[in-house]
Design goal:
Layout: H1 2-11, E1 26-29, E2 32-35, E3 38-41, H2 43-50, H3 58-69, H4 78-81, H5 83-86, H6 106-120, E4 124-125, E5 133-139, E6 143-152, E7 155-165, H7 168-171, H8 175-189, H9 191-194, E8 198-203, H10 209-212, H11 217-226, E9 230-235
Parallel strand pairs: 5-8, 8-9
Antiparallel strand pairs: 1-2, 2-3, 3-4, 5-6, 6-7
Helix pairs in contact: 8-11
Pfam families: RT_RNaseH
Protein name: Enzymatic polyprotein
GO molecular function, one term: endonuclease activity
Length: 242
C-alpha cells in the first residue's frame, strides 16, 4: 500500500477515502472473487455458463463462446474442450452478417456439458514473490495448452490455464514442433508471471535439443525466444500431465 500511495502522490493523484476499502477479506474485482490469495469466478458468471443451452444459429454460438471465453483462464484445455463448438463457425461469415443456422451435434452437447463441469469449482492461486513455478504443456493434433502452477503447502496449484486451437498449417506440423510451439505460446501468454523467474517446464516430448540447434526459419526464432527465459525442461508422459 505504501508503494501505491507514493506512486499516486508522485503522479499528482488524490483519492476519496470514503470510497476506499482497505484490506477487505473478500474483493469483487473485474468479474472475479479474490479471497485469501485464491481467485474464483464471480458466481454470476458461473451461473451464466450453467444456463447455456444449445444455440440454433451462428450468432448464438458466438455469444456462447463469448460467455465461456471470459473464464478460459480457469478451464483446463479450454480450446480442446470447446473445439466441437468452435468448429461450427468454420466458413461462417463474421458476426456482422446475418445469422446462419448451424448443425448442433452430440459432440457439441458433450463439449458444453464438460465446460459446465469444469467451471463449477474452478479456482486459481495468486502468486507471491519467491513461489516455485511449474509449467505443464501438452499438444494434440488440433490444439495446444498448458497450465502454470505454483507450490503451496506441498501441493502444486493452478495459477493460470492457457490454450489455443491450431490452424490448418499448424496441424500439419510434426508432433515435436507442436510440443515446442506449446511451450513458446504458453511462455508468451504467461510472460507477466514467468519473466525473470526460474521455471520448470514439463512436456511429453523427451528432448528439445534439436530445436536449440536450429540455424534458420521459425525453429531458430523459437530457439531465440526460449533462450530469453530461465528454463529447466523436463519430460513426463502426456497421460500424466495436468
Amino acid at each position: 500500500m505504501d508503494k501505491v500511495f507514493h506512486r499516486l502522490l508522485n503522479a499528482g493523484y488524490t483519492i476519496n477515502l470514503q470510497k476506499c476499502q482497505f484490506l477487505p477479506p473478500t474483493l469483487l474485482y473485474l468479474g472475479h472473487i479474490i479471497e485469501d490469495g485464491i481467485i474464483r469466478p464471480n458466481p454470476k458468471k458461473v451461473e451464466a455458463i450453467q444456463l447455456l443451452k444449445s444455440p440454433p444459429t451462428s450468432h448464438e454460438v458466438r455469444s456462447l463462446l463469448g460467455v465461456a471465453g471470459f473464464l478460459q483462464a480457469f478451464i483446463p484445455n479450454y480450446s480442446q474442450v470447446t473445439a466441437p463448438i468452435t468448429d461450427l463457425l468454420k466458413g461462417v461469415p463474421n458476426k456482422k452478417t446475418r445469422a446462419v443456422k448451424i448443425n448442433w451435434t452430440t459432440k457439441c452437447d458433450d463439449a458444453l456439458t464438460e465446460l459446465k463441469r469444469l467451471v463449477i469449482d474452478s479456482a486459481l492461486v495468486q502468486p507471491l514473490d519467491g513461489d516455485e513455478f511449474l509449467l505443464e504443456v501438452d499438444a494434440c493434433s488440433y490444439a495446444i495448452g498448458g497450465v502454470l502452477k505454483l507450490k503451496r503447502g506441498g501441493a502444486w496449484l493452478p495459477v493460470h490455464y492457457v490454450s489455443r486451437k491450431l490452424n490448418a498449417t499448424e496441424q500439419n506440423w510434426p508432433i515435436r514442433e507442436k510440443e515446442a510451439f506449446a511451450i513458446i505460446y504458453c511462455l508468451q501468454k504467461l510472460d507477466y508471471y514467468v519473466k525473470s523467474r526460474h521455471i520448470v517446464v514439463v512436456t511429453d516430448h523427451q528432448s528439445l535439443k534439436w530445436l536449440m540447434d536450429a540455424k534458420s526459419g521459425k525453429l531458430a526464432r523459437w530457439a531465440i525466444l526460449l533462450s530469453e527465459y530461465d528454463l529447466d525442461i523436463q519430460f513426463r508422459k502426456g497421460s500424466e500431465n495436468y
